Inverse folding.
């Protein structure tokens, strides 16, 4: 059976997104909240594994950009199914995201992200700076429970 990966610039389905989150060990999210969040994203990139058999394509990686579309952009949910990590899929996702940002973000815009612990060097390869540094403080977040 011949397998290949397909890159799309479409949102995953709510169910695909929830399944990918589960595969990487993230907490389950409310389906209605996921649907709204995906619909309000600025850009999506998804990678599916496709086979010639009749089984449906499987979402194996995704990334998206959220923000105001002008001044602030934020990389969100750049994830690869653990069974497919180490195959360059994350690099493919970031290439698609960086291509979108190069066309969309103008001089003076800010592009941010919160890297998972241990993934900082992956994003450094694409020009992102680790915080804190000499000029920038710690990145922060708040989770609603």
């Amino acid at each position: 059976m011949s397998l290949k990966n397909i890159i799309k610039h479409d949102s995953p389905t709510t169910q695909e997104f929830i399944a990918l989150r589960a595969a990487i060990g993230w907490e389950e999210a409310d389906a209605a909240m996921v649907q709204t969040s995906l619909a309000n994203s600025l850009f999506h990139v998804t990678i599916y594994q496709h086979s010639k058999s009749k089984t449906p394509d499987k979402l194996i990686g995704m990334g998206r950009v959220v923000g105001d579309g002008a001044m602030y952009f934020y990389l969100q949910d750049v994830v690869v199914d653990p069974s497919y990590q180490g195959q360059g899929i994350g690099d493919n996702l970031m290439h698609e995201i960086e291509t979108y940002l190069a066309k969309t973000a103008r001089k003076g815009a800010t592009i941010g992200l919160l890297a998972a612990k241990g993934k900082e060097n992956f994003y450094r390869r694409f020009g992102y700076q680790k915080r804190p540094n000499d000029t920038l403080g710690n990145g922060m977040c708040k989770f609603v429970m």
Summary: The chain has four helices and five strands.
